[in-house]
Amino acid sequence: MFFPASVLRTAVLLWLASEINPADCRKHVPPAVTQVYQYPDDTWIENLAILSSRHLLLTAFNIGSGSAAKLLTIDPDSVNPTPHVIAKLGNATALTGISALPGNRYAISGGEYGTFAFVNGTMSLFIVSIKGNPPTGSVIDAIPVPDTLMMNGMVAVPSQPFTVLSADGVGGRILRINTRTRQVDVTWADPSLLGPGGNTALPVGVNGLRIRHGWLYFTNSGQGLFARVRIDRAGNKVGSEVQIIAKLTGPVDLTNAFDDFDLSSDGAAYVALEGSSILKFTSRGVQTTLVAGGQGSAVVVKTPTSVAVEDDGRMLYVTTGGGQVLRVDLKPLKSN
Predict the structure, then answer these.
(1) Is there a domain that residue 307 lies in?
(2) Which of 154, 199, 167 is nearest to 48 (CA)?
(3) Is the dihedral of CA 179, 165, 116, 120 positive or negative?
(4) DSSP assignment, residue 283?
(5) Which N-terminal stretch is annotated as signal sequence (predicted)?
(6) Which residues have a Cβ under 8 Å from the Cβ of 166 and sit 6 or more positions away?
C-alpha cells in the first residue's frame, strides 16, 4: 500500500532507522535474561504494567476454566513467582491494553475475541481499582466502546490523566475515552494506522502506544512500522506528517512484526518484535537487537508481546505469546 508524500513520509530523525533487519543490528554483549514464570499451556499474555508495589499487572487471553477473562498480578521478586487473579472482567474472553490512571486505578481494554478482531459490540474499557501489597483489585466501571473491533495498546494523555488513547488496529483509528464522563470519540484516523489490507498473514494495524514530549509513538504490526506523530494536549493529531522511526524488511508475519513497546527515561525505546527478539533504539539513532531468542542465556523467548521498563531503567520485563514472563537485566548496558 502506498501513501501520498503529504500523508506519510520518512523523516530525518535522531531515531532514524528507515529500514531494518534485526540480524543487521549492532552487535553487543547480550544482557542476562531470566524466566520469572512460564504458564504450562503457553497462554498468550498480551500486556503488562509495573505497579507501585513492584508487582506486575498482566492481561491475557482467557486463562483457565470459565469464560471471564482474568486480570492477574505476579511478584517477580518472590522465591516462587505465581500469578494471582485480582479481578474477573465481565463477559470478556481476552484483555489487551493497560493504562495507569490517578488514584491507584487502571484502565483495561477487553472483549470477546475472534480471530485478529473482537466481536462487534463486546469491546469495553474496564476501570479497576488496585491497592495493597500484595495487590487486590475491584472493577468499579465498565465503559462500552461501540462499533469497534479492536482496542489494543493504550496510554493516558499526560495533561488529562483520566483520558486514555486506545489503538484500533482494525479500523485504523486512535480512540479517546474519558474515564470520568465515559465519552468515547475518535481523535484521528489515518492510513498509517491501518493493517496492510488483503488476505495477509497479519491484518492488524496500529498496536502499541506511548506519549513523550508531545509526540504519540506507535507501532503498526501489519505494516512493520514504528513511528510517531505530533499531538496536542487533548491527544489530537497536529499536522499531517507521520514520522517513520523504523520499518521492518522482509515479509511481515507472526514471526516478524512489531508489537508493544516502552520508552525509558533516557530516551531509548524497547520494542517487542514478534518471533523472538527485543529491539532497542537509542535517542542517538543506534539500533540494537537486545534479546534474540534468549541469546546468551538458557531462556528461549516465545513470541514477545510487550515490554515494561522499571522507572530506574535497570530492569526490563517482557511478556510473550508463549505464556512467559521474563526479566532482562539492563544494568550493564548504557544508552548510546
Answers:
(1) yes
(2) 154
(3) positive
(4) T
(5) 1-25
(6) 97, 109, 125, 145, 151, 152, 153, 154, 174, 175, 176, 177, 209
* pLDDT mean over 274-293: 86
Average pLDDT, the chain: 88
Residue 3 belongs to some domain of the structure: no
* Residue 8 belongs to a domain: no
Rounded distance, CA 297 to CA 214, Å?
Answer: 38
Within 8 A by CB and 6+ apart from 148, the residues are 118, 120, 123, 168, 171, 175
For 64, the grid coordinates are 483457565
Which of 6-20, 203-217, 252-266 shows the lowest per-residue confidence on average (mean pLDDT)? 6-20
> Model confidence at 305, in pLDDT bands (50, 70, 90)?
very high
DSSP secondary structure string for all residues of 288-321:
EEEEESSTTSSPPP--EEEEEE-TTSSEEEEEET
In a domain, 336, yes or no: no
pLDDT at 322 exceeding the cut of 60: yes
Give the separation between CA 192 and CA 219, rounded to whole angstroms. Answer: 10
Question: Which residue range forms the structural domain that includes residue 291?
Answer: 17-329
Q: The domain spanning residue 148 has which CATH number?
A: 2.120.10.30
- In angstroms and rounded to an integer, the radius of gyration of the C-alpha atoms of the chain is 18
Q: What does the alpha-carbon distance between residue 184 and residue 326 come to, in Å, rounded to a whole number? A: 35
